[in-house]
Each structure stands twice: as structure tokens, then as C-alpha cells.
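Summarise what follows for lecture notes:
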Amino acid sequence: MNIKKFKSFELNDFNRPYIISEVGVNHEGSLDKAKQMIEEISKAGGDAVKFQAYKADTLASKYSPAYWDTEKEKTESQYELFKKYDKFQKEDFIELADYANYYNIDFLVTPFDVESVDFLDPLIPAYKIASADITNKPFLEYIAKKKKPILLSTGASSISEIWRAVEWIESMGNTDIILLHCVLNYPTAYEDVNLGMIEHMKRIFSDNIIGYSDHSLTDNMNDVLVTAWHFGAVILEKHYTWNKNLPGNDHYHAMDYNDLKMLVDKFNFNKKIYGNFHKGYLESEVNSRRYARRSLVASKAIETGKIIEGSDITCKRPGTGIPPWMIDNVIGGVALDEIKEDEVLKFNKIKFSN
């Protein structure tokens, strides 16, 4: 099994999932709002906050059409949308990283250009790469050379494309790759979520940790994310906003403070009830073993020296005497002392037949 750590959090099949709250650009250019969300995410129990670092001029052509639901986000040009929210500079990300560190949550950023990759390097424990860059060989190789863990979203990708991206990264000497199942629709319809693909990815990419990045609406968020965990996703990523009622951008499919807190509480409860992955009885069950199980009991008075017959004994609670599975040793044995009717048979009163 792969085990990796962010801060003190172990990524493995036995822990609750590591939860990344993807602020993205839901701060809408406000550093104060970004800080507010970092604080909220920490207090709700999230493990990481994630932002995006890009410049519209290097990311999209002015003629790039929208690929999202324009009923929810009405901007019909990628360039125009990205231009609205590309205001944060290197100094802003440094300030946000310090703020996240103060609130003891991991600070993650998805870079979209090599300049961002470089200035983010000392600020982040891992690089998150967007699904749309899974075929961007020079960019993947550049990030891989930084020798940090890579979380690679796989939305709109085939298995062969994922393999090829993994090979490019590994060819740079970086094998620390986490793959996130993702559907590149904003929002993702529930019938398109396809969480069963997580199980497929776990089989195909058995050397990699598998997670899930969700873009579905929050109405059934707990069901979607808990099911993803059950299929084997040990990292979960979900968009986060300070106000779900805001129009456009990623607010409409994002969770807020209350959603995140309920989700963390649910996972913590599930982890509690999952308990130990090795069957055995608990310390709290010791009394149950003694008193709820049965022993061999005299069904009638048995005189000293009598050879015990099947009709002389029955099985009753408590389990403090000779256990029923030893009945063949007792039948044909000899009573070493007088045994009263309904008395629990003890080892010191019976000479076994064999």
C-alpha cells in the first residue's frame, strides 16, 4: 500500500480521506476574502486549502469558448472569465501561504504557467495539476523536475492518456504521483459522476494513490464524497466558497463552511465506526464473553462418582464454566463431587472421559 504524508496526515486506505477545499478563484480578487476562507476551512476541519495561479494572457486565447454551463456562469469566453480573477501576484500567494500555515492547514496551488511553478515551489508541499494539462508534456516535465508530490486530475482523459502523463512525470525521476478521478463538467450531473472509475483506476494504477475531485452540486455532496471514499479515494477535492448564493464562477457547485464541517464530522464518525481492520473481540466485550455465552449445566442433581450421561447436562448462561464445545469430553466422564441441579459445571468437579 502507498502511504504518503501531508503535514502529519497519512494518506492510506485506513484513514479518513484527506480533504482539499478548492477555493480556486472564488475570492474574486479579494485577499481578505481568500484569508476568510482559509480561516473557515481550518475551523471546519479541512486539511488543505487550494488556490489557482494563472494569467489569462498565457492561459487562453481571446477566442477560447466556454466549456461550462453558461446558465450558471454566463461568461462565454474562457479568456474573459480568467481575466476577471487573475489579479493575485507572487506576494499575495506568499501572504496566503503564511496565513494557511498559521491556521495549520496545507497550502496548495494549481499553477498554469512555469513562472507560477517557480515562485510557488517554496510555498507548497505538492503541485496540483489541472485535468486540462494532462496532455501538456513540457509543462508536466517541468513540474516533475521540482521533485515534489504531484496531484494530477484526470478529467476528460482516457486510460492511455493518463498512462502517458504518468510516464512523462516518471521519466524526470519523479514517481510521487497521486491520480484524482474527475469529470470535467461544471457542474457534473450525478449520472456522470461515475465513482466506479475510482475502483478501475485503483486496479490499473496500483502503484499510485487514487483520489477524487468533485464538480457536482452540493445537494447530495455527502453521499457523493462518502461513496467516493468507499470506492477507495483517499484524497477528496471539492470547490469551496464563502457564499454559495453568489452568481457565476465556481460558487454554484462549491461547499461552504457548514457543508465542510458536516462532511468532516461525517468522515470522523465513519472512521470511528470503521474501527479495526482485523477481526477480534474487544476489551469492552470481555464481560459479554463471560456472561452472555453458555456453559454446560447440570439438568438434574448428579451424585459423586456418577458417570455422566447426555441427559444429565444442558447448555445455559453464563459462560463461566465448562464451555459447550467440550461436551464430548464431559459425557462419559465422572463427577468428582456432588453437583446440584442447574449448577454450572466446573473443571474441578469433572474427570473427563478423554
Remarks:
- Residues 257-274 form the longest helix (18 residues).
- The mean pLDDT is 93.
- The two ends are 48 Å apart (CA to CA).
- The first strand starts at residue 4 and ends at 6.
